[in-house]
Sequence to fold (405 residues):
Amino acid sequence: MGRYRPSRARRSRRATVPAAAALLLAALCAGTGPDRSTTSVQQDFDPATVQKLDAAITKIMKQTGIPGLNIGLWMPRCGVYEKSFGIADKQTGTPMKSDLYTRIGSVTKTFTVTGVLQLVDRGKVGLDDPISQYVPGVPGGDAITVRQLAGMRSGLFNYTDDEEWLAALRSDPHRSYTPRQLLDIAFRHPPAFEPGAKWQYSNTNTTLLGMLVEKVSGQSLGDYLQEHVFTPLKLTDTSLPGDSAMPDPHAHGYTDFTPTGAIADATNWNPSWAWAAGGIISDLDDLHTWAPALADGRLLTRKTQAERLRTFSIGIPGASYGLGILNFNGWLGHNGDLPGYESIAAQLPTERASLVVLINTDTDYKGMNLSTMIGNAVTSIVTPDHPWSRPASTRPKQSPTPDNR
Fold:
């Protein structure tokens, strides 16, 4: 999985900001001065804002025990805040760096659903087609549509909420699962509600959509996404691997998702159970490219992107869900977490702002999701009218919580 990557040089993109420029940037963020959104020069946020962001992040890291994180905030009118904090490997003390690979969890859903919507644009799939047309053996599949699966409105049980399966995964995190085995776990349980009746987060939905992509395209999901999503956007460091190995260089991931609750290194645990719902590996730079592409729908037709962005409330103030995409107070994207890692990749179209957060642990702090804490702290400083809301946690838990939808 390791490979030589000359593209790493592209990380050194930011210019040093002299004092006069810093004052100008402060004025621009306040809404005065010339619009610099058309310039290609990327400069840092003003020193006062950087100080606030640094302080907020380091406070949360100290409070929660986060080993390391990468964060990127890009706002054309205000500047760039791109930093690495803490360590990537507890054993060696290697510092976190922006070019490290990481698992992105349920941000994967944005890619999988994009693949489905591309097939819609090509006339290969209909949003209101029943899933039974593509995947056999789904209970009530004649009444569950592709749209309902992508929008988390199918009512199908979430296999990662199955207590027996959770115990088995904690005991043997290296075990491999096929998509059909995951469906079998889900289908042991009755549906939670009639299709379309309400919203409920379920990894079963996205697993079915991954199987649909493979059925219709004749390719593996990883190969399809490589050809139709990663390559067109030049996401050279993004992949959906078929094994558990992490490419180099990577951040180690730490979790308490163990039989005893002790912290373990989950870097090379088998993520096959996450697959279409959470199996992608990426990095800060590629997600910086992906966030605006996802929000503006550049890989889709205008009509299909409009369908994607029709959102429904998920029961959290300011939060709604479209087709494989979240809207948190205007931020369009997704969060993700699985044992060892948490992530956010989102775009705020009104400010043309992109936010990426990558953390190498998923150990909640007093029931709070770590990436949410960071995302909320950062956006409360730079976009106070558009704070990042409290999203659903998507990793397996030892017992379901209100965030584990």
In short: The chain is about 30% helix and 15% strand. Residues 1-28, 30-40, 397-405 have pLDDT under 50 and may be disordered. The chain has one domain: 46-94+101-382.
